[in-house]
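Hey, quick one: can you model this chain's 3D structure?
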Amino acid sequence: MKIKALLLVLSLTSVFSFAQEKIKYSKEQKKEMNQYLFNEGFNTASPKKISTIILKDNNEYQGYSKSWEKQKGQILSITIEDADTGNTKKFEAKDIAEMYLYANDAEKNVKAVQFISNIRNYSTKKFKKQTSDERIHFVNQTVSLKNKKESKEFLMQVINPDFAESIEVYHDPFASTTATTGFAGAPAFGGGVTKSYYVKKGDKVMWLHKDDFEENYDFLFGDNAEFMKKYPKKSIEWDYFSFLVNEYTEMVNG
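Sure thing. Here's the predicted structure for all 254 residues.
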């Protein structure tokens, strides 16, 4: 037992030392880590395309999005017009397991302009995600908004559906972005990085701001020694967050 305890201490010490190391990445590595791999977050839905709502009792409804009730941008309820009957029906978030909507064309156009107006996006983001015609996935989550409000059930947009096995990331409708630098009439340089998301790992859902990233780094990634050795927290930046979530997911799940 003493030997096992000693080995455990040595293992934890090793992981801790990894977290303290500082790695100097190459320009190519930094370019790869700077890529934004999350889907674009949308705050409105198309009233012209059929939305799908799946309730917790497994009943499914389809219709056109008419209106919704929100708190700090997160969805508390949604009202749809039934695709077959034309009748409207309101669904509370607490009764919905998941839903699929389509982005509103007007908001997609705004996203496209924002993309074009910042040169940094050309090397870090994919334009097609700004104008996606794919269904947007929302799931029911119980969360405290900004880690301050009373926990409630909301319908939150999953922005990493392709690599959400270990860490699920949700759009923060009220997230701000880092400042950009530009000249009148010309595309801006730098900035434009989203400062916050909602994140779920295990049973915990929290609001994660860039200022709290280092504090929560061990919680998010510290259970994988290989990851911590390759990406110690003293060597990374908030700008790499989507890449790090994807990389961690690949390491954990193969």
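One thing worth noting: Residues 2-20 form the longest helix (19 residues).
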